[in-house]
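User: I'm curious whether this sequence folds into something compact or stays loose and floppy. Could you predict its structure so I can see for myself?
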Amino acid sequence: MIKRFSGSPLPFRGSKRYYVKRFREVLTKTQDIDTVVDLFGGSGLLSRVAKDSLPNCRVIYNDFDHYDERLANVGNTNALLRSIAPLLTDVPDNKKVPTETRKTILELCAEAEKNHPVDYITLSGSLLFSGNWAQSYEELSKQTMYNRMVSKDYDVTNYLDGLEVTHCDYRELFNAHKTNKKVLFLLDPPYLQTEHSAYKADTYWKLKDYLDVLTLLNGTKYVLFTSGKSQIIELCDWINQSFGGELLKGAQKYEQNSRINDFAAYKDIMLVKL
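Assistant: Here's the prediction. I'll summarize afterward.
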């Protein structure tokens, strides 16, 4: 039996796991679609769900953050976590890792780096307090560690099956498919007014960048994700009223409360125009 993923198989900040059910429902309403293009692919979860829901469609996953490299490295990641786990048997769950144990863990990471890339984002899920992330040895070495060890190996089997994986600028990919009247664009760009440190392609996302994305959408079918913090919907309404614009006009809005960690939450918004 082929596994159906309801979340990203490896930790990824900004994953749309809370929206999977509602996103599947939206996909059932699509008509006359032969291609799905995930312009800001992130962890690939939206692409995976789209392919599972619309198996006859071509699904293109734009993996700008090279999540596929982390998937390919999962065997080494699991092995490193298995070597760390015995060091934490006497540390209660969610409690601080003692200084000497922390030092040994860092030594294991440094040794592993001599032989293969180390997935520090995935390690963060087992060693750092919820919502904190490290992308390098240097970043991990500056963090306080906690025992949040996962209980089993990460399984990424079949996650990319049937997907076309690309690594390019979203504008290039959009331009390659914009004339196809049967294409559905998925857009989950970095949110305005939120922290982006867990993204490999770590460039600060400015208002102009977001508006550049929105101007592409006129006349297309799309599913766009944003955050209540960004106030982008209010801005679009103002632009439309003041200057006769068409930004996001006719899109249906869905809202979902999502959590960053045990103490922080935000409102996810999905805008759909089919």
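Summary: Residues 131 and 264 are 9 Å apart (CA to CA). The radius of gyration is 20 Å.
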